[in-house]
Amino acid sequence: MDSGPLVPLNGQILNEIHPPFPMEFNRNTVPGAYPAVPAQDSLLREYVRVLIKSKWVVIASVALVVAIVVISTLRSTPIYEAVGSIAINKTDPVTFNLKDSSSGFDYYDPTDLDTEVRILKSDLLALQVIRQLSLDKQPEVGAHSKPSASSSSIELTTDAMQPDSTRTSAALAGFKASLLVSLVPNTRIIEIRYRSPDKNIASRVVNALANTYVEQNFKTRFESTMQASDWLSKQLVDLQVKVETSQEKLVKYQKEHEILGIDEKQNITTAKLDELNRELTSAESARMEKESVYHLVQAGDSDSIAAAANVDGAARGSSANSALLEKLREQQADVKIQVAQLSTQFGPSYPKLAQLTTQLKEVDEQIQTEMRKVAARLRGDYLAAVQRESMLRSALELQKQEANKLNESAIEYSLLKRDVDANRTLSEGLLERLKEAGVTAGLRSNNFRIVDTARVPTAPSGPNLMRNLAFAFPLGLSIGVGLAFLLESMDNTVRTPEQAQIISALPSLGMIPLGSRSTRELGGRDKLALASSREAVELVTKSRPRSQMAESYRALRTSLLLTFAGGPPKIILITSALPEEGKTTTSVNSAIVLAQKGTPVLLIDADLRRPSIHKTLGLGPQIGLSNVLTGTATLQQAIIPSTILPDLFILPAGTPPPNPAELLASAKMKNVLEELRRHYDHIVIDSPPTLSVTDAVVMSTAADAVVLVIRSGHTTKPALRRARDILLQVNARVCGVLVNAVDLNSPDYYYHYEYQGKYGHGYYQEDGSSNADEVASEATSSGA
């Protein structure tokens, strides 16, 4: 039979249309034959859905954690924190350098600061402070262990540092638990913090620890410096002995080799040797000069002799001889000129010419005599220069021999004297440093100073309520979110059609929302009491045809009529996996919406074990299906026309039989269905749950379509899979899954079906004022 028009909405007739891809169901259907469900929304929206769904769990977790933190904070003992700081300057070398003292030493190892922090946390300092302030008697330090009878207080001895001293270990643990020593970044300042319920003890501990640390450090470095001084004193005594011994060896050597004033004598000898060397060089130069002049004179050249006379006169500082010779030569030249002139003018017989000739001869003789004198003098000078050179050379050789002898004796002497000087210098340096040791020890040990002393705190530092709340809120939120996702992961029920389609691999026929009105607002004839679930449900498809629930059942009708390629199914079996999932409600409302088309529809109550349709419709005990199957009644006697719609007929369950499964699986049941198929366009069968009994399974083979109803948030995933497998194993024509009792206000449907609230508000009408008009419209549409 062709599908007719739907119920008019807002004056318009909405025809049912075929889907673009109709699905044909046959008996060879397997779970994997259905198409996969489309992908779900983004992961972020899924997380938001889970959080909105479990918002009260998150809120309760946050509230519980915050309450616990607030209560514990308010009940906690106030803790006071005192703060002090110590500055650590660069450490000077402790050793005593001598001449090569490295005053420019500027290297500083950053690990030194970490070392000092560890020293401040050491057990030794802690025990000193505990003993000084008697902290072992304080509750926060000494109450961690019971005092032993053998020790009344902690002593800074070797026994106190042994691991088996339980009281010492307990006191150290309590002290260190309240102590915090940290290095201020990018500085050489160490900050000391101590927390205690007593504010006075907190400040006293910080100051005592700082003072003890500075004092101990000063004492340690001072003692190390004084130890170095003692070592220097011993070394100084040894050096003094070495100086005396080396001095005795030097004096003894001087006496044996008759060396007196080695430095001065060595200087005179060397100076005399140098002077003789210079004199010899000068004598050789003078001798060569006089020798050259003497050789010129021996040549007999008058000019050469005159020149030598001039040179000799200049060397001697006297020019008398050279002037006389020069004067004679000038006189000779004048006489020769006069002779030459008179000879030319008067001839050789001129008397005055003879006189001039005689005069010329005398001048020549005088020149010759003077030249012989000059030559003799130059020869004497030359011989004297040769003699002087020879004498200087002999003296130089003797001086060299004396210098060599002195050098041989000075080698050992220099070694001895160098040893004496070195020992004396080292001894003087050590003596100087030793005198400065006391002052140096004090100066070099004072590289630690207290920057800030701990003051008594005026307000407690803990417990800090706001800080604890700032920690408690994210903690509670994390716990709540974790519980939300844990509960979500532990939720084994099916809630949405998408989940049902993914789990069962069956098409989703739709969903039926929860009722929005109470049955108290409707008349008695419009009430539907579902006995299996003991829950009052309305006949929404009749009483409120414009409601969202009624529209959902009409959507189910469309899915049933238009999803089969060979035509709409006549026999529709409605079952569920478990009881109380709404299959009876679905059966009644499905029969109503099918009858609203104006075609004859038969509603069969096949739940012979727990029948409920006759109670729901207010029919009372009637003969029904069981009577027909047992042969005690005919179909005409058992089928009752409904008072709801003229085209709706009811076949109640009848008298409960002792063997319902055998009756429903009998050939009589098949014959009954075949006979009813010829008289009714649609037959809706309400069957028992699939997993409870086998009644629905044996009837499913005779049905044209099987609708598997599940309840949102009630049916488990294994139950849905098991029901599907049971039906498919007998080749039942399971057309899909219907999700019943869906809460659209649940976060599970917040994103998936929010369009129904946005766009369906004008199409859904919950009041039943126009029910009569709608029924009339339906009848008109059916007639059309």
Structure write-up:
This protein is α/β, with parallel strands linked by helices and 784 residues long. Helix content is 56%, strand content 10%. The strands form three sheets. It has an eight-stranded mixed β-sheet with strand order 5-14-13-8-12-9-11-10, sandwiched between helices. The chain has a four-stranded antiparallel β-sheet with strand order 2-3-1-4. Strands 6-7 form a two-stranded antiparallel ribbon. Helix 2 packs antiparallel against helix 13 (465-490) and helix 9 (302-316) packs antiparallel against helix 10. The two termini are 15 Å apart. The model is unreliable at 1-39, 94-105, 144-161, 516-538 and 767-784 (pLDDT under 50).
